[in-house]
Specification:
Order of helices and strands: HEHHEEHHEEEHHHEEEH
Strand content: 15-25%
Shape: globular
Radius of gyration: 20 Å
Number of helices: 9
CATH superfamily of the largest domain: GAF domain
Number of domains: 2
InterPro entries: GAF-like_dom_sf, HTH_MetabolicPath_Reg, Tscrpt_reg_IclR_C, Tscrpt_reg_IclR_N, WH-like_DNA-bd_sf, WH_DNA-bd_sf
Helix content: 40-55%
GO molecular function: DNA binding
Largest sheet: 6 strands, antiparallel
Keywords: DNA-binding, Transcription, Transcription regulation
CATH topology of the largest domain: Beta-Lactamase
Protein name: DNA-binding IclR family transcriptional regulator
């Protein structure tokens, strides 16, 4: 039930509050949290107090607010990606041992790739794919691998909402990328996010040959082992798919 002047329900305001934390920030001042959530300071103070009482948020002297440990606990306990991450982790570790570079696991959420796991080592190249981070489909190899193996109706709906009809991210350009990804069995984007890196990803397919996840690596732009990288990723993706089918 909506009970605010804006018409937002209590649930709406709580979601806005929790979602206001940026991916790379673990704590905010109460006033900044209110501003980012678009809520009055008094409302923010009241809701933060109620959420802190349930340990979903934590407060500190000076007005600092951070996500609570219990929020992390509940999310991970009921996460729909838990089985996927458990199935993928051994294969991701194997890939990382061979490459000594970043390995990531992503799922499609709306029109974005949502990264649910990442392995990296000291000395790895820069990787903008953070756990619980998102990237638009068209600028990430993970997103292309996921979208290229969806139903045609989903693809057309996605292409129909692209905001750049005449540019590099227009429907025709992205449709060509999706067709190439589907034909080749993997997606690759060079210097799309970082000028010095190369993203390569393959789909994890279910029995209907639709992508339920993507497995990818981020390597230096000078990396020349494409013929070795792709088969290794595809073998690992098939192994993850088998684990999911058996679970």
């Amino acid at each position: 039930m909506a009970n605010s002047q804006s018409g937002d329900s209590v649930v709406d305001r709580i979601v806005r509050l929790i979602s206001a934390f940026p991916p790379d920030v673990t704590a905010l001042q109460l006033s900044e949290l209110a501003q980012r959530a678009g809520l009055p300071l008094t409302t923010t103070h009241r809701l933060v107090g109620q959420l802190a009482a349930h340990r979903l948020l934590e407060t500190a002297p000076g007005g600092t607010v951070r996500p609570g440990v219990r929020l992390w606990e509940l999310v991970n306990r009921a996460s729909p990606t838990l089985a996927l991450r458990q199935a993928a982790m051994p294969f991701m570790e194997d890939i990382q041992q061979v490459l000594n570079q970043n390995v990531n696991l992503a799922v499609l959420d709306g029109w974005e790739a949502l990264f649910v796991e990442r392995l990296s080592r000291r000395g790895s190249v820069a990787n903008r794919a953070q756990v619980a981070g998102r990237m638009p489909v068209h600028i990430s190899s993970a997103g292309l691998a996921l979208m290229a193996h969806q139903d045609k109706a989903v693809q057309e709906e996605y292409l129909g909402q692209l905001p750049d009809p005449d540019g590099m991210a227009g429907p025709d350009a992205v449709r060509a990328l999706l067709a190439e990804t589907c034909r080749e069995g993997y997606a690759q984007l060079k210097a799309a996010v970082d000028p010095d890196t190369w993203g390569i990803a393959v789909p994890v397919l279910n029995r209907r040959h639709l992508a339920v996840a993507s497995l990818g690596v981020v390597v230096p732009l000078r990396e020349m082992r494409l013929q070795a990288l792709v088969p290794a990723l595809q073998t690992a993706a098939r192994g993850i798919a088998r684990q999911l089918a058996d679970s």
